[in-house]
Specification:
Radius of gyration: 16 Å
Mean pLDDT: 94
Helix content: 25-40%
Structural class: alpha+beta
Number of helices: 6
CATH topology of the largest domain: Alpha-Beta Plaits
Largest sheet: 4 strands, antiparallel
Strand order of the largest sheet: 2-3-1-4
Order of helices and strands: EHEEHEHEHEEHEH
Strand content: 25-35%
Number of domains: 2
Distance between the termini: 16 Å
Number of strands: 8
């Protein structure tokens, strides 16, 4: 049995990809064999225990949510250790507002040549940094033209990704 952190991509407050109640999500995931299922905030963060492989977790979580709730959400699977490493490597110093630091996770292998090209771009006040477990975004409130957002990164890098604020990652790794 190992602990896994599930990050759902595409949860919306209203509409088709809404998860009505986190308690129901816990219930349906337990029914398909996951143990010690806990959720954190409405945006799709789950911590659970399982013996399944990451690929089996991705497929099972996606399918049960699709079948029981009707939401078609991408599923990113990480270990608490990966989140700890990602939080520890966070590259921004104290001059940066911690509430504006985002960590972008994927299950996919990103083409390094595409990523290198992206890392060379000037995003003004916004910053993009590569880490060993994720990409880091610094998105100041007053950025004139927001370019660095998950949809842009997914399209450019050809990868399914989901972002979480640093504070959310820290909370999840301690659950």
């Amino acid at each position: 049995m190992s602990k896994k952190v599930i990050l759902l991509r595409g949860v919306t407050p209203t509409g088709q990809n809404r998860i009505p109640k986190m308690s129901y999500l816990v219930e349906i995931l337990q029914k398909v064999g996951f143990e010690e299922v806990k959720t954190y905030i409405q945006s799709g963060n789950i911590v659970l225990q399982t013996t399944k492989s990451d690929e089996e977790i991705k497929q099972t979580v996606h399918d049960v949510i699709r079948e029981k709730i009707g939401a078609d959400l991408a599923v990113v699977v990480k270990t608490p250790q990966q989140l700890e490493r990602a939080a520890a490597e966070q590259p921004f110093d104290d001059s940066h507002d911690r509430t504006r630091i985002h960590l972008v996770f994927t299950n996919d292998t990103i083409a390094q040549t595409k990523l290198d090209k992206l890392l060379q771009e000037d995003f003004g006040d916004e910053k993009l940094v590569q880490g060993s477990e994720c990409l880091y975004l610094y998105l100041p409130r007053d950025a004139k033209k927001k370019r660095l957002y998950t949809n842009y990164l997914e399209k450019y890098l050809g990868s399914t990704m989901t972002a979480r604020k640093l504070s959310v990652v820290e909370r999840l790794m301690n659950m």
